[in-house]
Design goal:
The protein is of the alpha+beta class. 28% of the residues lie in helices and 35% in strands. This is Acyl-coenzyme A thioesterase PaaI-like protein.
Length: 150
């Protein structure tokens, strides 16, 4: 399967070993929203039996990467997306499978216009992490850039 035929989730699973290691499930990966699930797996639990904080961080960062690829995949010939910063807040105890939903914090067209102007745009991606009962267990923000090639 070529990169053109792969979904964003398949591409991330193929190119990001940590996504494969955690068995992340990419349910949706579009320019408006990305949804990724971390299944409940004992080998990634913490001391209280829920998903380890590092696994939850990777889940959120992976959801942010999925939306960035979906929104800016057509720019990959001239710029590489890079995460430049992140922060996470753990709000409630997470147990069982958790789902991360990512949304862009700026219009994609605005970011591309900055790239067109020769700038290196930065933009936030907001992520909510929820457990199966819908409770928000974590909130995350990842700042991304599109670094021009060459």
């Amino acid at each position: 399967m070529s990169a053109d035929q792969m979904s964003v989730g398949e591409m991330l699973a193929a190119t990001v070993p940590m996504a494969r290691t955690l068995h992340l499930e990419f349910l949706e990966a579009g320019p408006e929203k990305a949804v990724v699930v971390l299944p409940d797996q004992g080998e990634f639990h913490n001391h209280v039996g829920g998903p380890h904080a590092g696994a939850m961080f990777t889940l959120g960062e992976s959801a942010s990467g999925a939306i960035v690829l979906a929104a800016f995949g057509d720019q990959l010939s001239r710029a590489v997306p890079l995460a430049v910063g992140a922060e996470i807040a753990y709000r409630k105890l997470a147990m069982g499978p958790v789902t991360a939903t990512a949304t862009l914090g700026r219009p994609a067209a605005e970011v591309v216009a900055e790239l067109d102007a020769g700038e290196r745009p930065e933009f936030p991606v907001a992520i909510e992490i929820r457990r199966a009962d819908g409770a928000v267990t974590g909130e995350m923000k990842v700042i991304w850039t599109l670094r021009p090639n060459g």
